[in-house]
Amino acid sequence: MSNTKNTQESQDSQESQNSRNSSKSNDKQTAKSRPSPMEVLRQARGQLAELTGMEAESVSSFEQTEEGWALEVEVLELERVPDTMSLMASYQVELDAEGQLTGYRRVRRYERGRSDARRPGGR
Fold this sequence. Notes:
Number of strands: 4
Order of helices and strands: HHEEEE
Largest sheet: 4 strands, antiparallel
Oligomer: single chain
Mean pLDDT: 82
Strand order of the largest sheet: 1-2-3-4
Distance between the termini: 76 Å
Shape: elongated
Number of helices: 2
C-alpha cells in the first residue's frame, strides 16, 4: 500500500512539474511570436510600400492598441522640383498583434515645404 502511495505521489509531482514547464514554454513561445516595436515598424513600412507602390519616408506616430498597432506613415506621393514642392501624404496604418497590416487610409496630403496649420502639433 505504501508503495502504491509513493508511486501516486511521484506521478502527481511529475505531472505538476510537466505542467509548470509547459506553461513556461508557452510563455516563451508567446513572447517569441510577438514582434518587437522595431519589427512592427519595418513590417508596416514594407507592407504599405508593397500595397501602394510608394516608399514610406518616416513614421510620425506609433502606438500599441488593444487590437495590435496603429501608425501614421509619411509617404512621398509626387516628386517635384524643387523638393520643397513635392506632394507628401500621411497614411494611418493599422496592424494586428503579429504585425500584419489589416488596413490603411490616407488622412492628409501636403506639400513637403509647408506645415499644416489646421492640426495642433503638426499632425
